[in-house]
Amino acid sequence: MSQAARAPDIRSQPPLLQKLASMNLLTSGSPASYNLAELLGAQINLSDSISLARALTSLEKIKTSDSLSMERPQRQFLNARGGMIRFVLRSFEANETAIPFMLPQANQATLDDPAEAIKPYQRFYSLHQSEMDHRVTTLRKSLRASLALDGPPRSKLANLDRILDDTLGEYGRKVLARLPKMLVARFALHREEFLNSATADQPIAPANWQHSGGWLHGFHQDIKQLLLAELDLRLLPARALLEALETQD
Asked: Terminus of the chain with fewer CB atoms < 10 Å: N or C?
């Protein structure tokens, strides 16, 4: 007697899916129904499958290039990850001036015109995504170059990562590009809760909405948590390359 397939344990899902589910931003309401590998695999069409199969049967050692870093791979990964986390956190600090893009500042229109008010936040999120994409891509290239120095089979693994990135990378970017649009629902929720609260009619300066306990502060925390969870997801391939480098023959 066949048994129905068990849904994946919620704790086994990437933090980004868990975070989206906790914010009620997934249509199913639960990340257990989302299998990341299946979602990505479903995006490989016949043409991609043929190209991927040909590439896998003729893997060649990738050439080392300027992508190779002299830093130890583990230290390189930790430094890159730490730098990206600090970049995200600093962009939420009110007095930070060294970051090229900062969290939008509130004014009365932020409350009165939500359709326009959400747009700067979406741009802010998208700019962070571009920065993460650039830094993670640079890190992966460097880790591939380190793998290539070890000879087969690690050099083949490095080339495999490049092939998969070429095949699925653009799809991944398109999926993640939906996240800024999802901010609309969270903004509307925090705004509605504030308008229905006892403090809505009190004279409060818009800047105070961004302080702890303010309705925008809660929304800002949502953005921050989503960015950090997305970073964790983007770093998964780099983590796999690092683990391959650290595995003893």
From this structure: N
DSSP string, 49-98: HHHHHHHHHT--PPPP-TT--SS-HHHHHHHHHHHHHHHHHHTT-TT--S
Q: What do you get for the CA distance between the two ends of the chain, in Å?
A: 42
User: Once rounded to an integer, what is the mean pLDDT over residues 219-226?
Assistant: 97
Q: Is the dihedral of CA 29, 131, 168, 67 positive or negative?
A: negative
Round to whole Å and give the CA distance between 95 and 130.
Answer: 23
CA atoms within 13 A on the CB side of 207: 1
Going by C-alpha positions, the residue among 54, 9, 60, 56 that lies closest to residue 35 is 9
Confidence band, pLDDT 50/70/90 cuts, at residue 62:
very low
Rounded-to-integer distance, Cα 225 and Cα 239, Å = 20
Do 147 and 154 touch, CB atoms closer than 8 A?
A: yes
pTM (global) more than 0.85:
no
Per-residue model confidence (pLDDT) at position 166:
84
SS3 122: helix
